[in-house]
Amino acid sequence: QASLPLVINTWHFENAASAAWSSLQMGGSVLDAVERGCAQCELEQCDGSVGFGGSPDERGESTLDAMIMNGNTMEVGAVGDLRRVKNAVGVARAVMEYTEHTFIVGESATIFAQNMGFKSEDLSANQSIAIFSKWLQSNCQPNYRKHVFPDPSKSCGPYKPNAKSRQPKHPKGNFDPSSHD
Amino acid sequence: TIGMIVIGKNGHVAAATSTNGATHKIPGRVGDSPVAGAGAYADSTAGGAAATGDGDIMMRFLPSFLAVDLMRNGAQPTAACEMAISRIKKYYPDFFGAVICANTTGGYGAACNKRPGFSQFPFMVVNPQTNKPQLHKVDC
Question: Which of B33, B72, B138 to mutate to test the interface with A (most CBs of A within 10 A)?
Answer without folding.
Answer: B33
